[in-house]
Design brief:
- The protein has about 120 residues and is an alpha+beta fold.
- The protein is built from 3 helices and 3 strands.
- The protein has a 3-stranded antiparallel beta sheet, with no helix packed on it.
- The longest helix is centred in the last third of the chain and has 12 residues.
- The chain is flat and about 65 Å long.
- The model has no long low-confidence stretch (mean pLDDT about 80).
Length: about 120
Protein backbone atom coordinates (compact mmCIF):
# COMPACT_ATOMS: atom_id res chain seq x y z
CA UNK A 1 0.00 0.00 0.00
CA UNK A 2 1.36 3.41 -0.89
CA UNK A 3 1.27 6.38 1.48
CA UNK A 4 -1.08 8.24 -0.86
CA UNK A 5 -3.90 5.74 -0.21
CA UNK A 6 -6.09 6.54 2.75
CA UNK A 7 -7.67 3.51 4.36
CA UNK A 8 -9.43 3.44 7.68
CA UNK A 9 -7.61 1.04 9.97
CA UNK A 10 -8.74 2.19 13.42
CA UNK A 11 -12.16 3.35 14.55
CA UNK A 12 -13.35 4.75 17.90
CA UNK A 13 -17.07 4.88 18.58
CA UNK A 14 -18.04 7.07 21.53
CA UNK A 15 -21.29 8.26 23.05
CA UNK A 16 -22.57 11.59 21.74
CA UNK A 17 -22.60 12.76 25.37
CA UNK A 18 -18.93 11.96 25.99
CA UNK A 19 -16.56 14.64 27.18
CA UNK A 20 -17.56 18.01 28.54
CA UNK A 21 -18.71 21.15 26.78
CA UNK A 22 -16.21 23.83 25.78
CA UNK A 23 -17.91 26.25 28.15
CA UNK A 24 -17.57 23.88 31.13
CA UNK A 25 -13.97 23.11 30.16
CA UNK A 26 -13.13 26.82 30.20
CA UNK A 27 -14.87 27.27 33.54
CA UNK A 28 -12.92 24.36 35.08
CA UNK A 29 -9.60 25.82 33.95
CA UNK A 30 -10.55 29.27 35.23
CA UNK A 31 -10.50 30.91 31.80
CA UNK A 32 -12.99 33.57 30.78
CA UNK A 33 -16.05 32.35 28.93
CA UNK A 34 -17.12 34.34 25.87
CA UNK A 35 -20.92 34.36 26.16
CA UNK A 36 -21.34 36.11 22.81
CA UNK A 37 -20.26 33.07 20.82
CA UNK A 38 -22.21 30.47 22.85
CA UNK A 39 -25.88 29.63 22.68
CA UNK A 40 -27.95 30.01 25.81
CA UNK A 41 -28.86 26.36 26.45
CA UNK A 42 -27.59 23.55 28.61
CA UNK A 43 -24.98 21.18 27.23
CA UNK A 44 -26.02 17.56 26.71
CA UNK A 45 -22.51 16.35 27.45
CA UNK A 46 -22.04 14.55 30.76
CA UNK A 47 -18.59 12.94 30.39
CA UNK A 48 -20.09 9.57 29.43
CA UNK A 49 -17.50 6.79 29.36
CA UNK A 50 -19.11 4.51 26.72
CA UNK A 51 -16.73 3.61 23.88
CA UNK A 52 -15.82 0.86 21.44
CA UNK A 53 -12.39 0.78 19.78
CA UNK A 54 -11.72 -1.45 16.81
CA UNK A 55 -9.12 -2.18 14.18
CA UNK A 56 -9.70 -3.50 10.69
CA UNK A 57 -7.87 -6.72 9.96
CA UNK A 58 -5.82 -6.59 6.78
CA UNK A 59 -6.09 -10.38 6.44
CA UNK A 60 -9.85 -10.72 6.10
CA UNK A 61 -11.19 -7.15 6.21
CA UNK A 62 -13.28 -7.70 9.36
CA UNK A 63 -13.33 -5.34 12.33
CA UNK A 64 -11.84 -6.59 15.59
CA UNK A 65 -12.92 -4.99 18.88
CA UNK A 66 -9.81 -4.25 20.96
CA UNK A 67 -11.25 -2.07 23.75
CA UNK A 68 -14.81 -1.71 24.98
CA UNK A 69 -16.72 0.00 27.77
CA UNK A 70 -20.49 -0.47 27.48
CA UNK A 71 -21.49 1.50 30.57
CA UNK A 72 -23.35 4.79 30.34
CA UNK A 73 -23.65 7.39 33.10
CA UNK A 74 -26.96 8.80 31.83
CA UNK A 75 -30.40 7.65 30.70
CA UNK A 76 -30.46 6.53 27.08
CA UNK A 77 -34.00 7.79 26.51
CA UNK A 78 -35.18 11.07 28.06
CA UNK A 79 -37.95 10.64 30.62
CA UNK A 80 -40.47 12.64 28.56
CA UNK A 81 -39.98 10.24 25.59
CA UNK A 82 -40.16 6.93 27.48
CA UNK A 83 -43.91 6.69 27.00
CA UNK A 84 -43.25 6.04 23.28
CA UNK A 85 -41.03 3.01 23.95
CA UNK A 86 -42.68 -0.35 23.06
CA UNK A 87 -42.34 -1.79 26.57
CA UNK A 88 -44.16 1.22 28.05
CA UNK A 89 -47.13 1.17 25.70
CA UNK A 90 -50.38 -0.57 26.57
CA UNK A 91 -53.10 -1.44 24.09
CA UNK A 92 -56.46 -1.91 25.75
CA UNK A 93 -58.37 -5.15 25.24
CA UNK A 94 -61.17 -3.15 23.61
CA UNK A 95 -58.81 -1.81 20.90
CA UNK A 96 -57.23 -5.26 20.41
CA UNK A 97 -60.63 -6.88 19.90
CA UNK A 98 -61.75 -4.13 17.52
CA UNK A 99 -58.51 -4.41 15.51
CA UNK A 100 -58.81 -8.20 15.19
CA UNK A 101 -62.47 -7.90 14.18
CA UNK A 102 -61.73 -5.35 11.47
CA UNK A 103 -58.80 -7.43 10.22
CA UNK A 104 -60.98 -10.56 9.99
CA UNK A 105 -63.51 -8.51 8.02
CA UNK A 106 -60.82 -7.92 5.39
CA UNK A 107 -60.01 -4.28 6.14
CA UNK A 108 -56.38 -3.35 5.49
CA UNK A 109 -54.08 -2.12 8.25
CA UNK A 110 -53.94 1.49 7.06
CA UNK A 111 -57.73 1.74 7.11
CA UNK A 112 -57.90 0.03 10.54
CA UNK A 113 -55.45 2.59 11.92
CA UNK A 114 -57.60 5.43 10.52
CA UNK A 115 -60.76 3.96 12.06
CA UNK A 116 -59.19 3.48 15.49
CA UNK A 117 -57.57 6.92 15.41
CA UNK A 118 -60.98 8.63 15.21
CA UNK A 119 -62.60 6.51 17.96
Amino acid sequence: MSNSESKIRWRDIVCSKSGISRKNKLQQTGQAVDNKSTRNRLSQRCNCTFFICGIKSEDHGLWIVVKINLSYNHNLVPIQLRKFMPDNQEISDNIKDKTLGLHKAGINITRIRDIIQYD
